[in-house]
Amino acid sequence: MKIDRITTWLTLGANIGVVVGLAILVLELRQNADLSRASLETEKNSLLTQIELSLATPENAAVWVKSIRHPEEMTDAEIRMMEAYLVSIMLQWDQVFVMETSGLAGRERLERHVSNTAPYYFGSAFAKNWWRFQAPGWEGTPMSEIADPIIASLDENFLKNNLDNMRIGGKNKNGEETDESVSSAVTLN
Question: How many beta carbons lie within 10 A of that of residue 61, not counting itself?
């Protein structure tokens, strides 16, 4: 009888230990998922920062602007340079696709990221044309499913207009004053 009570208490203690162990395991798994998510977000942002800083060098910026304003005048080397940037952006997007596949990001997060970044890289006639040649290779993938309709819907003059509208105290390429667009944008904020 005494042995039965001891066995009962030992069984109860073991069961409580298993439940506590499982709870700790679940907490550790959640922490691991949070750390993985934070690491992938940091990598994604780091890649985007590297792309942006590279585009800010005088030589690269000149080619970038040429791809926006005069793509028909680009040399083969300049086309290849711009292609590298567009591929880099797609690799950056792919990191978010990996996050979604791993359960670390939802589809909405993925679509929002592509929607927010696509205009600033694919909002030109050159980039949209480049994508048209790349899109068939992505058929059946999340890249095609999400990025293709977003890129297709972009205004090919988005980047050109964006450059024009950032000028202060001058005229854009159409000869229009830009102070109004800048002051109205500031007023809206």
Answer: 12
